Each structure stands twice: as structure tokens, then as C-alpha cells.
Amino acid sequence: MEESMKVGKSLQDKLARSLDKVNVREAKAHRQAPAIPAPLPADRRCTKLSISLFETDRRKVEAIRAFVLAQSRVSISTSQVIKLALRTAPLTKALTEALDQAKREDGRKW
Fold first, then answer.
1. pTM value?
2. DSSP 44
3. In angstroms, how far is the first alpha carbon of the chain from the final one?
4. What gap in Å lies between CA 72 and CA 7, rounded to an integer?
5. Do the beta carbons of residue 81 and residue 64 sit within 8 Å?
6. Using CA atoms, how far apart are residues 98 and 106, in angstroms rounded to an integer?
7. How many whole angstroms from its chain centre is CA 36?
8. How many other CB atoms sit within 10 Å of the CB of residue 74?
9. DSSP state, 41?
10. Are the beta carbons of 95 and 89 closer than 8 angstroms?
11. Total H helices, total E strands in the chain
């Protein structure tokens, strides 16, 4: 009887060790590193800038934000306001006239 208990016990030990190994392998398999997203193409990357605005310019930024919110019910950031202004700025004489006006208002050399 002792012999059968030894065999039974060793079988149980082998089974337990085998299950432990399987559990360890499964645990390792589930711990995969998170996928690293591919880098964005150059035309989709942003460059961080720091700008200084006069109070009149800051009020204009807030006016644009309020206008967009009223028209489309979308709240936009200051960065989005600047992007919007850049993308809609006319590349005409009106732009250089606006530059001359800004020089007069700001009282600084450009």
C-alpha cells in the first residue's frame, strides 16, 4: 500500500508541476508589451511654438473661439484658432496691409 501511495503521490506531484509550468507559460503569453504606434509621417507632425500676443490679439483669439462655438457648438483651443487663422489668411495685398496696421497698433519694430 505504501508503494501505491508513493506512486500516487509522485503522479500528483508531476501533474502539479506540469500544471504550474502551463500556468507560467500562459501568464507570460498574456503579458505582451503594448503595441507601439508607428511614427506619424512628416506632414502630420506638429512643432511646438511659443508666441506672445498683445491684449488686442488675445481678445481677437477669444472672439474667434466664441464665434466658432456659437456657429458650430464646438469649443476650440487657442492652437486651433491660430491654425484656423493661418489656413484662412489671404495671400494678397490685404495681408501686407494688415501687417502695416499691426505695426502701427503695436508700436514696435517688426
1. 0.57
2. G
3. 102
4. 78
5. yes
6. 12
7. 13
8. 9
9. P
10. yes
11. 4, 0
Closest CA to 78 of 66, 65, 69: 65
CA-closest candidate to residue 51, choices 25, 83, 29: 83
Q: Which three cell numbers stand for residue 78?
A: 487657442
Whole-number Å distance between alpha carbons of 53 and 88: 19
Q: Write the single-letter amino acid at 28.
A: K
Sign of CA dihedral 70, 73, 78, 82: negative
Distance of CA 93 to the CA centre of its chain: 37
Angle made by CA atoms 18, 20, 24, in degrees to the nearest 5: 120
Rounded to whole angstroms, the Cα distance separating 61 from 1 reads 91
pLDDT per 10-residue tile (average), the chain, 110 residues = 60 83 72 78 86 91 96 94 94 92 80
- Grid cell, residue 96, equals 501686407
Query: Any idea which residue has 500528483 for its cell?
Result: 12
